[in-house]
Amino acid sequence: PEWYLTQVLMWIGNHAKFLDDKIQPILDKAGSSVNAGLEFSRALVMLILEKLAADIPCLLYDDTLFCHLVDEVLLFERELYSVHGYLSSLPSCMHILSEESCFQRWLTVEKKFALQKMDSMLSAEAAWVSQYKDITDVDEMKVPDCAETFMTLLLVITDRYKNLPTASRKLQFLDLQKELVDDFRIRLTQVMKEETRASLGFRYCAILNAVNYIATVLADWADNV
């Protein structure tokens, strides 16, 4: 997908000056409210929506290819809005990703890869060690690496779904994040039970620091609607 997504971004960028300098004055003179650049972008995005509608059914059950498609679409959307000034009121790829079969598959794949990431972060050698253990002014909370990586994972998921067009779809992703927080809590509890004989030990204290850090960050996020 990156081939045609990049191609469309190149077309939009390459034609911007011509549309602004040559076409927009004609539209303005005619009293039209049409923005030439945005209209050009909108028409090209409509082509992408057609292409995605044809591609997605073929990729739904190949986790790797489907996940790659979603990643590329999200990168495309980010550049379309931030670099080319596209408007959220116009058609976008997020509408295709929000369609039921595609959206449910996205949720499933997102959860699968998140759980795999959690497995790897908790089994890593440095899981309970702080990245900043040697820098005292940075490491007041003594946050173990697994807790920091987990919160980064949640933040990345938020960043991926924040531009979905409807609140109901965003809430489904929020439910997924709540599931992941609960799953992480259970994992911490399991590790803690193994450490109860050494409640002043290194790993037991690291678990308490992890819980404190996660609670603090979630409280900070509470203002983010």
UniProtKB/TrEMBL annotation:
GO cellular component, one term: Dsl1/NZR complex
GO biological process: endoplasmic reticulum to Golgi vesicle-mediated transport; regulation of ER to Golgi vesicle-mediated transport; retrograde vesicle-mediated transport, Golgi to endoplasmic reticulum
Annotated signal sequence range: none
Superkingdom of the organism of origin: Eukaryota
The name this protein goes by in its record: RINT1 protein
Organism: Eolophus roseicapilla (Galah cockatoo)
Gene name, Swiss-Prot/TrEMBL: Rint1
